[in-house]
Specification:
single chain, three-stranded antiparallel sheet, two-stranded antiparallel sheet, binds zinc ion
Length: about 70
């Protein structure tokens, strides 16, 4: 597994609160909306991108706290 994939998986384990229903989910189960807000599977709409998509486009090195 390369560093990028490792960072991606780690990022997916982060807990994030859904902006729609305020329930906390793992990032890997969330959807990214325009404006950088994250939504859960129940609150997402067709304009949003699933973790599998956006996590491959983002520069995760900038999101890593450590
Ligand atoms: Zn939600």
């Amino acid at each position: 597994m390369d560093r990028e994939e490792e960072a991606r998986l780690k990022f997916g384990q982060r807990i994030q609160r859904c902006y729609g229903c305020f329930v906390a989910f793992y990032m890997k189960n969330m959807w990214l909306a325009e404006g950088g807000l994250f939504y859960c599977n129940n609150c997402k709409d067709d304009s949003m991108f699933h973790f599998e998509d956006f996590s491959r486009k983002l520069d995760l090195s900038k999101l890593q706290p450590d």
